[in-house]
Design brief:
Strand content of chain A: 15-25%
Number of helices of chain A: 6
Shape of chain A: flat
Structural class of chain A: alpha+beta
Oligomer: heterodimer
Structural class of chain B: mainly alpha
Shape of chain B: globular
CATH class of the largest domain in chain A: Mainly Beta
Largest interface: A-B, 50 and 75 residues
Largest sheet of chain B: none
Number of strands of chain B: 0
Order of helices and strands of chain A: HHHHHEEEEEEHEEE
Number of domains of chain A: 3
Distance between the termini of chain B: 7 Å
Number of helices of chain B: 9
Chain lengths: ~230, ~190
């Protein structure tokens, strides 16, 4: 870690907030900020003070589907029904919607594919890195990879459940792209049932040799119940 | 010391962020209603493509929901915190998309008090302070800072847009920020 010369910290923080600090220097500053209270304090100072530069920006209302997307990504809803715009169709559609919703409710409550928990693992910038879904009834775990940071050579990312009052329990190595499905063991199911969070650590290829995280924990995300 | 704004609007945002941290989904919806028009405008100014700005806005609210517990009133205003999340996301996307820089033509060089809408007063609750300090900068310094902050332009973009050498642009920005800091800190302490 470099020495914290206040002048240097302040200059970098200002350019970071302004947006002119780019590329690797920007990434480095973000990591520095996460670990140094002084750097964090200067960045927050500039974020607060430079807000006024946005003056003159005219508010722009985003289209409704954006909010629907946020709700879906956070697991707030399954999928919103679309509204028909013809009156005659509307009645038929409402009946169909009621039937579908009833079916969905039945499926979600009693069906085998009931999604019970979800975690969206994101970088500080908001980039989605992995989405984790837990299906308790079928003891399945699915992980979908998003935009991953570069994996250090010879290393893998490993997912952990962090049960309250217990040691982390491995949920396996994470995929670098696409999605992966696996069946949960009883130990993993129990850990997930009482875990408010999941974490990701960097491990040797194939996963931690000890059964506990051995490398740096790089992400922690809340695990939310969907029901 | 960062003065904590006591405007009713900021207090409302603060309260909503606290409820988001506790997992209150209705609070996020209200926060979205209040903040998304400004955040979407900031994203659109930087990204210039509607579809991309919409995607980024989703990223921003997912991030706000997940990080609401980390927001600290003592560090600044909630809107500043959210605008930063949005701007940083947009800047990261620019890196991937390699979008051509665009000038910011409809940006007034000097603020026109008549043009300030009522809603804007809500989220810029301390008019005058930054304005006063900006007034101490040279015309070029001010222009560069606005191009970077509002348009998401890099040093290189600004040099191209304004037709000035890269070194000159860098030093205008560096000196502009230095003067701003001296001015802002002398006022707030």
């Amino acid at each position: 870690m470099r020495p914290e010369n206040p002048e240097v910290v302040d200059r970098l923080a200002a350019e970071y907030v302004l947006g002119t600090l780019r590329g690797r220097a920007r990434r480095r500053f973000e990591r520095w900020r996460a670990t140094s209270p002084l750097v964090e304090e200067r960045a927050a100072f500039w974020e607060d003070r430079l807000l006024g530069l946005a003056k003159g920006t005219k508010a722009l209302t985003p289209p409704p589907h954006v909010w629907e997307g946020v709700r879906q990504r956070l697991g707030f809803v399954e999928r919103a029904p679309r509204r028909g715009n013809l009156r005659v169709l509307a009645l038929a559609a409402s009946i169909a919607v009621v039937a579908i919703l009833g079916g969905l409710l039945y499926w979600n409550t009693f069906g085998p594919q009931q999604l019970t928990q979800v975690a969206s693992i994101s970088a500080p910038s908001g980039t989605r890195v992995w989405t984790v879904q837990v299906f308790r009834k079928t003891a399945r775990l699915t992980v979908r990879a998003g935009e991953l940071p570069v994996t250090p050579a010879g290393r893998d990312y490993e997912l952990w459940a962090l049960p309250t009052g217990g040691a982390p329990v491995s949920l396996g190595v994470l995929p670098r792209s696409g999605s992966a499905q696996r069946t949960l063991t009883e130990v993993q199911q129990r850990a997930l049932a009482s875990a408010p969070q999941v974490a990701v650590s960097i491990e040797p290829t194939g996963g931690s040799p000890t059964g506990q995280p051995t490398g740096a924990i790089v992400f922690v995300a809340p695990l939310r119940s969907v029901t | 010391m960062i003065p904590v704004s006591d405007s009713a609007f900021e207090r409302q945002l603060q309260d909503l962020l606290g409820r988001c941290a506790a997992g209150d989904q209705a609070a996020l919806q209200r926060l979205y209603e209040l903040a998304s028009p400004l955040l979407f405008a900031c994203l659109t100014r930087i990204l210039r493509r509607k579809a991309l700005a919409e995607e980024a806005l989703q990223d921003v609210f997912v991030s706000i929901w997940q990080r609401a517990g980390q927001f600290q009133v003592s560090r600044g205003r909630p809107m500043a915190w959210m605008v930063s999340i949005a701007r940083y996301r947009a800047i990261d996307l620019l890196r991937h998309e390699r979008l051509a820089p665009v000038p910011v033509p409809d940006l007034p060089e000097r603020s026109d008090p008549e043009a300030v809408s009522a809603s804007e007063e809500d989220w810029v609750p301390a008019p005058g302070l930054l304005e006063r300090c900006l007034g101490l900068l040279t015309e070029q310094q001010r222009h560069c800072l606005r191009l970077a902050f509002v348009g998401g332009s890099s040093h290189e973009d600004i040099a191209r847009l304004t037709g000035n050498p890269l070194g000159t642009v860098k030093s205008w920005i560096r000196r502009g920020l230095q003067s701003l800091r001296q001015c802002l800190e002398s006022v707030s302490t």
